[in-house]
Each structure stands twice: as C-alpha cells, then as structure tokens.
Automatic annotation (TrEMBL):
It is a multi-pass membrane protein. This is Olfactory receptor. InterPro entries: GPCR_Rhodpsn, GPCR_Rhodpsn_7TM, Olfact_rcpt, Olfactory_Receptors. Pfam families: 7tm_4. It comes from Sus scrofa (Pig). One of its GO terms (cellular component) is plasma membrane. Putative odorant or sperm cell receptor. Belongs to the G-protein coupled receptor 1 family. It is found in: Cell membrane; Membrane. PANTHER family: OLFACTORY RECEPTOR (PTHR48002). Residues 40-285 form the G-protein coupled receptors family 1 profile domain.
Length: 309
C-alpha cells in the first residue's frame, strides 16, 4: 500500500435501511428470529442430552452437534445486526470485521461437513442396519465431529489470511449487514482478481462438492431400497435432512460458487442462511420426528408442567 494512502481502521455496514421506523420494525422481527433460534436449538440439545435413548443414538448425537453449530452460526452475525438496527452509523472496527469473517466461515464450513457426516450416518443406518451400531460407534462419531470442526478451521484460516493480506485504504462501506469475504475484498486498494478466483474455488468447491456428495448419498439410498414401503420409510427418515441441506447449501452455493459480482437479492439470500435456516432446523427435525417429540414431552412432564405436542 502507498505510504500516502490512509489505512482503513473501520468499516461501515450497509445494513437494510436508513429509515429509523423501518429499522425498529426489523429489530423486533430479527429479535424474534434470534430468540426462536436459541429456544429451539437449546431445547434440542437439552432433550438429546437428557434422554438416554437419544443420547446413545449416533443420529441424535450428530443432531445435537448440529444444533450447537446453528446457535454459533447465528450468533456470529445476528447480535451485531440487532445492534445496528438501533445505530445509524453501523460502524465495525477492522479487527472485529476480520474476526466476524473468520468465525462465519469457520462455523459455516464445519456445518457443511457435519451435514455430510449426517448423510453418511443415514446411509449406514438404512443400507447396513445390522452393522449400524458397530460402524457408527461413539468414538467414530466424535472423530467425525472433530474432523468437521477442523475442516472448518482450516477453510476459514485460508479465507482470512487471503483477506488480511489485502490493503484497505477506502472506500469502506461493506455492502451487506455483516463482514463476509465477497463484499470485503471489493474494498481492497489492489487488484483482487487472483484472490477472488482462489476464494471462489475454495468456498465454492466446498459447498458444491459437499452438496453433490449429499445428494448422491440420498440417491444411492433410494436406489438400493427396492420395496415401496422401504422407500417410503427412507424418504420419511431422510426428508428432514434433505430440507435442511437444501435450505443451507442452496444459498451458500448461490453466494460463493460464482464470481464476486453483486446482485440485488444477495442480502435477502444472506438472511436466509444466516438467520432463517438456524431457526427453522429445530422445527424441521422435531415436527417430522416422533422420537424427538416424545422425548421433549417426557422432559416437559418431568418439569412438573402439562403440555401436549
């Protein structure tokens, strides 16, 4: 960077609107989303941890970890978004911006890998039911979860290093409500073509390849099952996973698996996978799963209250 250029020490987040009455309404709406995300995901984690049957099942062990990741993922961006609805300036220091970017990709990539692990779990459960408990041992499940976190850490470290090596000297408005790689590197005072290609190939490859693996896994399950009744049960079992995969991977592929050009719908798509999907995941899994609903009912009954799901 030229010595005569001033290094940027903070960025301005564009947000959604600069009209106070609109922002106050959005604050209430997104606060509802965030509280719902916490309530739903914490309820799943507590239910899985307190029920012996669910806690011993590989599928629900992975589901509990997914809920924890959803909480972390939503918390990376939503609290800052809520604060900015009440702040006209919407400033974020450079260091905090980079930290937000790092944890966004860290947790996001870890969730992608975990969803792939969950697809493998369903494949083993349906296609090799007699060996399921042997193959999907608690030790293997813990190792796969740890590998998901490690994969997310490596991916995020690469993205962050490529970003902080760029010089920033103005402009400083990030065209989104949080710091992410595509809008941040657009502000660099340097040619970012090669960096963009590296980042697109990194994030785009992870999201697209994971999605292909997931779809291939579920397709293989359906092909291997010959009976209509068996396919119906398989679809019922995997239906919730397919919904979660579609809601999470669809927006991620749209954002990261293309050159860093800006579309008018980018902010809305970002809201979908940053705010809405972590809130919907608990509903998707509980509404379609009798075991989870039954365990929640027992947990509620033990609390001394009466409630019917």
């Amino acid at each position: 960077m030229d010595k005569n250029q001033t290094e940027v020490r903070e960025f301005v987040l564009a947000g959604f609107s600069h009209r106070p009455y609109i922002e106050k309404g959005l604050f209430v709406l997104f606060l509802f989303f965030y509280v719902s995300t916490w309530v739903g995901n914490v309820l799943i984690m507590v239910t899985v941890a307190s029920d012996k049957h669910l806690n011993s099942s590989p599928m629900y062990f992975l589901l509990g970890n997914l809920s924890f990741l959803d909480l972390c993922y939503s918390t990376v961006t939503t609290p800052k978004l809520l604060a900015d609805f009440l702040d006209n300036e919407k400033l974020i220091p450079y260091d905090q911006c980079i930290m937000q970017l790092f944890f966004l990709h860290f947790v996001g990539a870890a969730e992608m890998f975990l969803l792939t692990v969950m697809a493998y779990d369903r494949y083993v459960a349906i296609c090799r039911p007699l060996h399921y408990t042997t193959i999907m041992s608690r030790g293997l499940c813990c190792a796969l979860v740890a590998a998901s976190w490690m994969g997310g850490f490596v991916h995020s470290t690469v993205q962050t290093i490529l970003t902080i090596r760029l010089p920033f000297c103005g402009p400083k408005q990030v065209d989104n409500f949080f710091c992410d790689v595509p809008p941040v590197i657009k502000l660099a005072c340097a040619d970012t073509f090669v960096i963009e290609l590296l980042m697109v190939s990194n994030s785009g490859l992870i999201s697209t390849s994971s999605f292909v693996v997931l779809v291939s896994s579920y397709t293989t399950i359906l092909v291997k099952i010959r009976s209509k009744e068996g396919r119906r049960k398989a679809l019922s079992t995997c239906g919730s996973h397919l919904m979660v995969v579609t809601l999470f991977f669809g927006p991620c592929i749209f954002i990261y698996a293309r050159p860093f050009s800006t579309f008018s719908v980018d902010k809305l798509v970002s809201v979908l996978y940053n705010v809405i999907t972590p809130m919907l995941n608990p509903l998707i899994y509980t509404l379609r799963n009798k075991e989870v609903k039954s365990a929640m009912q027992k947990l509620w009954d033990r609390s001394g209250l009466t409630w019917k799901i």
